[in-house]
Amino acid sequence: MDARTLTDPIPLAQALMRRPSVTPDEVGVMDLTQSKLEALGFRVKRYKFGLVDNLYARLGEARPNFCFAGHLDVVPPGEGWASDPFAAEIRDGLLYGRGATDMKTAIAAMIAATENFLHHGAPRGSISFLLTCDEEGPAVDGTKRVLEALASEGEAIDHCLIGEPTSEARVGDVIKNGRRGSLNVVLTMEGKQGHVAYPHRARNPVTPLVETLASLKARRLDDGAPGFDPSNLEVTSVDVGNPAHNVIPRKAMAKLNIRFNTNHTAETLLAWIDETANAAATRAGAAYSRTISSQSLCFYTEPGAFTDLLRAAVQDTFGITPELATTGGTSDARFFRLYCPVAELGLRNETAHMVDEHCAVEDVRTLARCYETVLRRYFA
User: Fold this and answer.
1) How high is the mean pLDDT of the chain?
2) Given 26, 115, 134, 135, the catalytic residue
3) Residue 302 among the catalytic residues
4) Is the per-residue pLDDT at 328 higher than 90?
5) Phi, psi of 50 (to 5 degrees)
6) For a Cys staple, 88 with which of 97, 145, 173, 380, CB 3.0–4.6 Å?
7) Where on the phi/psi map is residue 78: left (φ > 0), alpha (ψ -120 to 50), or beta?
8) Residue of 53, 73, 155, 211 marked active site
9) pLDDT at position 35, please?
10) How far apart are CA 376 and CA 218, in angstroms?
C-alpha cells in the first residue's frame, strides 16, 4: 500500500483535543469517536454509569478479539499555557494541547491504524475499542464497569493494548507489561486533650501515631518481584492542627501511600498497618481508626507470545528493541488483567499533565504505523 494513501491520525487527534473533555465531561468527544468507528463498520454501544460516558465498539464476530483501549478524558489544563490548551496548535512540528501525549493522540493513531489495516481486508477475528472518560478521575464508572457489563453479556476480549504514554527517551523504547498497585490510607489516633505540664491527665495521640509511622517505615516490604521494583511506603502528611505549644491535642492524623508489587495485596498490607497501629494505640491508651482514600490493583502480564509480538512490531517500525517495564503510576490496565493479557504502548510521557503538553507530529504518525503492524502480526 502506497504510504501516501495512509490515513493520517493528526486531523482526528486535533479534533479530539479541541473538545475540552476534562473528567468526566464528554463534551462530544465520544460522539466524534463513535461516528468515526461506525464509518469503518464497527458496531458501537455506549455505556453510561453515573456521570461517565463510555464506549465499546467491535468489528467482526469471531475470535480472537483484539482490543485497543484508552481514555478520552483529560486532567484540567491549569494556567500559564503559551497557547489555548484546547486549540491543538501545531508549531515547529509539535502538536500542543491537553491530551497531546495522554492520550487522545494514541487513540487517533489506533483508529488510523485500524483504517489502514482494513484496506487489506477484514481481520481473522475481531477488532474492538473500549474507551472511557473516567481514567483521570475516580476510575469507578469507567473501564471497570464496562468490562463487568461486557462479561455479563458474554463478550470476551482475548488481548488488549492500551495507548498510555509509556515511552521515555524515544517513542517505542518502553512497553509496560505491568504496574505496581497503589494504596492511599489515612490513619487517625484519638486521645485526650490536656495541659503539657500535666501529661498524666491527658493521652497524647501524637506518640502512638509517630511510633506507628516509624515502625511502618522501618520494615523493608520486599526486595522486588519478577518484573517489579521493590514495594515502598511513603508518609505524605502528618496533621495535628494544634497551634499551641502548651496543649496536648486530642487527635492526630497521617496520610501514607504504598506502591506495591505482586508480593502483596491491599488486604495483607491493611492488616499489617492495622496490627501495627492498634498495638501502638493500646500502649498509649488511644483509639485508632483508619480509612482508605483510594486503592489500585497491580497487574502483570508475563513475558511471552503477546509481549514478543508487541516488541517485534516496535522493532519493525522504530528499529529498536523496547524494554518491558512495570514502573510509573496506575492505569486502567489493572482492570483488564482480570479478563485478558494486557500491555501499554504509547508516546513519550515527558510532558503528560504538564502546562504546554505536546508531542511530535511525526511520532503520532509513526505510532499509528506501529499499531497497524501490531494488527498485521496479530491476525497473520
Assistant:
1) 96
2) 135
3) no
4) no
5) 60, -125
6) 97
7) left
8) 73
9) 98
10) 51
> Mean of the pLDDT values across residues 194-206?
97
Q: What is the DSSP letter of 19?
A: S
**Residue 302 grid coordinates:** 508475563
Q: Is the pTM of this model over 0.70?
A: yes
What is residue 4's predicted lDDT score, i.e. its pLDDT? 43
Say if residues 132 and 78 touch (Cβ distance below 8 Å).
no
pLDDT in tens, 66-105: 999 999 999 999 999 999 999 999 999 999 999 999 999 9
Annotation says 73 is catalytic: yes
238 phi and psi angles, rounded to 5 deg:
-130, 120
Which residue carries 508487541 as its cell?
310
Complete DSSP assignment for 152-205: HTT----EEEE----BSSSTTSEEESEE-EEEEEEEEEE-B-EETT-GGGSB-S
pLDDT tens profile 239-292 = 999 999 999 999 999 999 999 999 999 999 999 999 999 999 999 999 999 999
CB 94 within 8 A of CB 140: no
Asked whether the beta carbons of 142 and 41 are under 8 A apart, the reply is no
Q: Is the pLDDT of residue 139 over 60?
A: yes
Rounded CA-CA distance 248/186 in Å is 21
| Strand (E) or helix (H) holding 67 | strand 65-71
Instruction: Give the pLDDT confidence score for residue 3 in this predicted structure.
Output: 46
The single-letter code of the amino acid at 233 is L
Please state, in angstroms and rounded to a whole number, the distance separating the CA atoms of residues 15 and 11: 6
Task: Give the cell for residue 194.
Answer: 490536656
The residues, any chain, with a CB within 8 Å of residue 125's CB and separated by 6 or more, are 60, 62, 63, 64, 65, 66, 158, 379
